[in-house]
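[agent] plan:
  1. take the single chain provided in the ticket
  2. run structure prediction with default settings
  3. attach structure tokens to the ticket
  4. add a short note for the reviewer (M.T.)
[agent] executing step 1
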Amino acid sequence: MTKETHPKLELPKLLVDQAVRTALAEDLGLAGDITTDPIIAPDAQGEATIVSRQPGVVAGLDLVEAAFKTLDPQSSVARVVDDGGKVESGGAIARVQARTRALLTGERTALNFLGRLSGIATLTPPMWRRSKARARACLHAQDDAGLTRLEKYAVRCGGGVNHRFGLYDAVLVKDNHIAAAGGLAAALERLRPRAGHMVKVEVEVDTLQQLEEALRFPINAVLLDNMDVETLKKAVTLAKGKVLTEASGGVNLETVGKIAAAGVDLISVGALTHSPRNLDSSLEWAPDR
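[agent] step 2 finished; step 3 output follows
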């Protein structure tokens, strides 16, 4: 039996560079680093280690590397742990060599990205483990505007999967769309000529009656919003073999196992991005050699 392999986790370079340059521009403003520049000579060289102060799953090292390389193209980042890998409390994540000014100026940007994305990646595995009461249960993350691609990448580093990336790549007909259109039938009739054949269509429902109505149309998935477990089980029975079922609302570490046990195909977990704690890490200066 051949060993299963997975593609390396990575972010598009353009996305990384844009995010890092935006963050550095915000941090440096019009005057630059008015603490570091007067203290440190332009040609001084430094070395430091990024250390985690708690156990977790690492994500965001491309952004760490870009933060230092933007300030010093000759800098180097040696990864001790790759994205998606685990680090213990006190463990080294990466070792950085660069001009001292670049190390000190880029530190906050690098650690902010690393902490945020690693926090999401660290929360994902326990959510995933508790959802596996059914083999097909998996995790979708809702995201914050401006960090969408980065946060979804962090979810993948933690072993989760992604939902749509925005309003442009999948149709999600929600309750307000239905109300504004004058009903589900009217909404879908207007939608059908505009949705390409490669675009999936999902409809949000709050009740079993709404689900029965939605199943009369050629859709791909239903979002079962804020249903209790018993209602979810009935919804799964109604939709089985017809469309994918996705549970949403009130999902956390305490509830995700029960929700998965209802038999839904997917679970949308907003807590992955609105509730994680940043992975606490620091840049530890190497002693003079």
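[agent] step 4 note for reviewer: The two ends are 50 Å apart (CA to CA).
[agent] ticket updated
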